[in-house]
Amino acid sequence: MNEILNHTLLRSFTPFDDLAPEYLDKVIEKAEICEFPKGTIVFKRGKELTDCFYLVQGNIDLIDTQFTITSIDTASEARRVPLNSSSPTKVSAISKSPVVLLKIERDFLDLVMAWSESNGSDDGSDDEGAAGDDSDDWMSALLQAPLFSKVPPGNISQLFSRFNEHKVPAGETVVKEGERGELFYVLKSGSAEVRDVLGNKLAILHPGDYFGEEALVGDTTRNATVKMLTKGALMCLGKEDFKILLHEPVTRFITVEELRERQKNWPLVQILDVRLAIERRIQHLPGSRNIPLGGLRKALAGLELRTVYLVADDAGRRSDVAAQLLIQAGFETYILKHADQHYADHLLDS
User: Fold this and answer.
1) How far apart are CA 12 and CA 286, in angstroms?
2) Is residue 233 within 8 Å of residue 189, measured between CB atoms?
3) Architecture of domain 130-247
4) pTM above 0.70, yes or no
5) How far is Cα 171 from Cα 141, in angstroms, rounded to an integer?
6) Nearest CA to 182 among 210, 223, 219?
7) Does residue 88 have a cis peptide bond before it, meaning omega lies within 30 degrees of 0?
8) Helix, strand, or coil here: 115?
């Protein structure tokens, strides 16, 4: 049924009717078409739902707390908005015929709207730095990054007002290994390369790729050099704005007491010790896995996405950087506060 998902269908609903084509493409990637037979309770009143539902085909009844029934079909104006406009739901939904529904994650929809509205209106300007294909590319790429999917939509709106654009020529060194970090960068247009102190190429950056966050999180020097391969443009964010809008909102901490409750709902939990091996030999949490921060980036590919990772806070700022790397890679991550021997013993016995 997903073959019926297209721009025309989406534009029959609000707020998709105001989205640019590139954002509709992202919605299509995330949305799902669902079918329900007659008499199905699609959702019940008072439930927390992570998805929004739109009526594509059929007839559905919405029943409120007073048992008042509102019937919705494809000719109804009310079908343009989600059947469950709030969470927890204020109505129950029962299919009165076989129905086809469009389902999309509520948080993703909020994020798409925030990005779209933050991009501002297109005034037809032909200015060289104005939004165009490059702008669409970098914003679309950021929209898909795991880190930005966790950022509150309100923060994203503020980001656009605080980003500063800088044009850069080919061959310019944007950041140099060993220098202090004061800015977070997103590549808006052009391409760049990342090299280590030995000159080894670590990565090629394209529009939407970002860099410079590790030095800001850990308040350390740059750990690589980034040089422009072509002329381009960078969107730059100051250190304090980065911490307030991007770092702090996605960094989550968990205490021993909280974990005792939460781990009941987590199938797999892994404590990570990101200190050096020599530090670990002196004292460490039993059952923890040692991945020194310097090797964490390479180890990401071998980690399990279904596992919840707890970064022990005994590595200081390195714990903050490690958590940031894991979050950026899409892992469910917390910093374990006040990790100590007593806690580890309890965890192993529980």
Assistant:
1) 56
2) yes
3) Sandwich (2.60)
4) no
5) 24
6) 219
7) yes
8) helix
Question: Residue 153: is the preceding peptide bond cis (ω within 30°)?
Answer: no
CATH topology assigned to domain 253-349: Oxidized Rhodanese; domain 1 (3.40.250)
Delimit the domains of the chain by residue range: 2-108, 130-247, 253-349
> What are the φ and ψ backbone dihedral angles of 286, each rounded to 5 degrees?
-55, 140
- In one-letter notation, the amino acid at residue 113 is M
Q: Which helix (H) or strand (E) is 43 found in, with range?
A: strand 41-43
Which DSSP helix (H) or strand (E) runs through 165? strand 164-168
Q: Which CATH number fits domain 2-108: 2.60.120.10, 3.10.180.10, 3.30.465.10, 3.30.870.10?
A: 2.60.120.10
Average confidence (pLDDT) per 10 residues, the chain, 350 residues: 84 84 83 95 92 95 91 92 87 96 85 58 39 56 77 76 92 93 93 91 92 89 93 94 90 88 87 90 86 92 94 90 92 85 50
Q: Could you tell me how far CA 91 lies from the centroid of its own chain? A: 30
Question: CA-CA distance, 41 to 55, in Å (whole number)?
Answer: 14
Residue 200 CA to residue 225 CA, distance in Å, equals 10
